[in-house]
Every structure is written in structure tokens, then in C-alpha cells.
Amino acid sequence: MSYRVEIFREAEKTLETLDKVMDQRIRKKLRELAQAPLDPRLSKQMETAKDRRYSRVGDWRIIYRVNEASGTLDIIAIRPRSRAYR
């Protein structure tokens, strides 16, 4: 099952500021996550918020939650590793 990706405003603003290469890498990871959002090879559960998961792309983290009922992947934030877990 493929999930529909919904990018929250904060994450969208971050994507707009990234260089082209990192933007492409993150968008590729989003496509992979849409196919298998709970795959342990692609993401891990956050310790601080059990309903959220994160995926690594270089020094950046994609923070998201899976909404099974609506079939969506809610991209909450895209942050550098140093700020991702706060």
C-alpha cells in the first residue's frame, strides 16, 4: 500500500531553503517512505514521541507520523540532526 504524503508548513519551508542536491535526496526518501513508512531499514521510532518516527538523510532528519486510518504520511518537520530531537 502506498501512503499519500502530506508535508506540514514547517517542513515545506525547510525544503525551500535546502540546496538542490539535498532537496532531491530528501524527496527521494519521502517517496521510499510512502511505500513502506514502518520499514526499520528506512526509519526508527522516536524515543520522545512514540507516535512519531524519523528517517535519516545525511545530517538531516525527516520527522513524521503514519496515519493508518486516512492512509497518509504526515511530514511534521525536516531538521538538521542537531535540532531534530528537541
By DSSP, the count of extended strands is 5
CATH class: Alpha Beta
What is the mean predicted local confidence, pLDDT?
94
Give me the CATH fold name: YaeB-like fold
Report the sheet-strand fraction: 25-35%
Which structural class do you get from the secondary structure elements? alpha+beta
Gross CATH architecture: 2-Layer Sandwich
User: Going across the major beta sheet, what is the strand order?
Assistant: 1-5-4-3-2
Per CATH, the superfamily is RelE-like
CA-atom Rg in angstroms? 12 Å
Protein name: Type II toxin-antitoxin system RelE/ParE family toxin
Keywords: Toxin-antitoxin system
InterPro entries: RelE/ParE_toxin, RelE/ParE_toxin_dom_sf
Organism: Desulfobacca acetoxidans
Sum this structure up briefly.
This protein has one domain: 2-Layer Sandwich (YaeB-like fold).
Q: Can you describe what's shown?
A:
By secondary structure, the chain is α+β, with helices and mostly antiparallel strands. The protein has a single domain (4-81), classed as YaeB-like fold. Helices cover 34% and strands 33% of the residues. The protein contains three helices and five strands; from the N terminus they run E-H-H-E-E-E-E-H. A five-stranded mixed β-sheet has the order 1-5-4-3-2. Strand 3 and strand 4 (60-67) form a beta hairpin. The radius of gyration is 12 Å and the shape is globular. The termini are far apart. The relative contact order is 0.24.
Which key terms come to mind for this protein?
86 residues; alpha+beta; YaeB-like fold; 5-stranded mixed β-sheet; 3 helices; 5 strands; 34% helix; globular
